[in-house]
Amino acid sequence: MTASYRALFCDLRTDQVIDALPLSGASIEDYIGKSGTMSGTLTAPDAATAERIKTAVTPGRTAVWIERDRAIWWGGIVWTANLTSAERATPAKAEIQAATFDSYLDHRLVTTNVTFEEVEQFDIARRLVDYAQEADGGDIGIRTSARTSSGIKRTREYSRYDLPKVRALLDKLAAVRDGFEWRIHCYRDTSGERVKELQLGHPLIRTTRSDAETVLDYPGPVTSYKFPYDATTRATHWRSRGATTGTSNRPLLSSPHYVTGAIEDGWPRLDGTSDHTTVKTKKTLDDHAAADLTEAWTREVVPEITVNLDAARLTPAILGATIRLRIADVWTAVGFTGRYRVVGFTVRAPERGQAETAVLHLDAAGRAQTGDNDEE
Question: Per-residue DSSP letters for 86-131?
Answer without folding.
Answer: -BTTB-EEEEEEEEEGGGGGGG-B--S-EEEEEEEHHHHHHHHHHH
